[in-house]
Amino acid sequence: MLARKILLGTLGIGIFLLIWHLATLGNSRTDVPGPWLAFNGLIELAGQGVLWRYVIASVFRVAWGFFLAAIVGIPLGLAIGWSLWIRELLNPLVQALRPISPIAWLPIAVLVFGGVQWWEPSDLAAIFLIFLASLFPIVTAATSSVGAIDEKYLRAAENFGVRGLPLLRLVILPAALPQILTGLRLAMGIAWVVVVAAEMLGVQSGLGFQINDSRNNLRYDFIVAAMLVISVIGMLLDTAMSRIERTSLARTGMARR
């Protein structure tokens, strides 16, 4: 099965590369480049040394935005799902803000955080956008996870005198864990998508900045090279989150390693 999976996956990528090559045959690097031009652009960017710096900048921003969203979103979602009065107080606000695209916040983020020096100017603006993009999937997943807990488990725990924080630690969190982990994985994917858009305006580093700068200089081979790097890193991040999800569930007896 593994050999078949690898073979079919390789075949699919090969077909895509062939179609890409045929569709861009004869193009220069100022047009939509073919696979070979994109690969050469990737080698050139790596040789210049800027590629690694931009990768680190993008991963740095995603890591901070995602981490802040997780430490805020998980407790907030659990509270909204568990407490009726907190749900009535905060859920309308969450549902009102959730449909707003994080990119729509970009002008406000640049205005508020653009002049703040951290790693570089406007770092906090990008991190704020990633925080917003990650927050709502995490809050929604945590809220739904509490609502999906079977009532009989809660009643059984209460019959044994388990209430308050012990109930949260021993019953609610283990039962909610699968959906929370799924929400974290989805949020990571969204964060990685948003960082590219956030870096196209207001920052001077990152893969999004590389794409925008290459467009201004008509280096479309650099653009596609950056897109390839974004794809690979996105796959690695999703694989890492999937591994964390499986390991965490296996430790609680909910999945096999």
From TrEMBL:
ABC transmembrane type-1 domain: residues covered: 55-241
Gene Ontology process terms (BP): alkanesulfonate transmembrane transport
Primary location class: membrane
PROSITE patterns hit by this protein: ABC_TM1
Topology versus the membrane: Multi-pass membrane protein
Keyword Mitochondrion in annotation: no
Subcellular location: Cell membrane
Family recorded in the similarity comment: Belongs to the binding-protein-dependent transport system permease family.
Name the record gives this protein: Bicarbonate transport system permease protein CmpB
Species, as recorded: Rosistilla ulvae
